[in-house]
Amino acid sequence: MGNLFGKNKVLTAVFISGRGTNLKKLIQFSKTKNSPIKISLIVSNNFKAEGLKYSLKYKIKKYVLAINDTKFEDKVLKNLKINKIKFICLAGFMKILSKKFIKNFNGKIINIHPSLLPKYKGLNTHEKVIKNKEKYTGCTVHYVNYKLDSGKIILQKKIKILKKDTPKSIKKRVLSVEHQTYYKAILKIFSVI
Question: Domain with 115 in it: what CATH number?
């Protein structure tokens, strides 16, 4: 897939809805020499998303539209085109993208999910993991397709669940693993490693 995009860094958009901790790590990674991507746009469906502060901090363009806007996807697609975006990373983006949107970026949208897919798609993954007495959990970076959290898996990282774990403690531990796994998955996609 590396040569699919050419030799220059690939202009990338990161979609967020919340704190943007994965966004921050992706930005830091994108500034390294061996990164195949350049984050040139941050897209959000939440005007109050904490992660938008990284737009200012790292001087990256942002585009924010309210979630209830029915024209959300059309406007975002237009904006992505204007900014010559070729690759999209979803990082805590709490809106399901339509088939039409995904088709426009076929095979070039990835997401990170806080469970070992195909187990525990959707929300409340950490609660489900504890309820079902799982021994392990972790995170998965996958391609986005038309079904929720069902795209081809790129990379997974596993952590052991401890007896004292709560959904909150698991969330914290999985998040720190996410920060390492997301950029490694990107390197894998662009076959730099």
Answer: 3.40.50.170
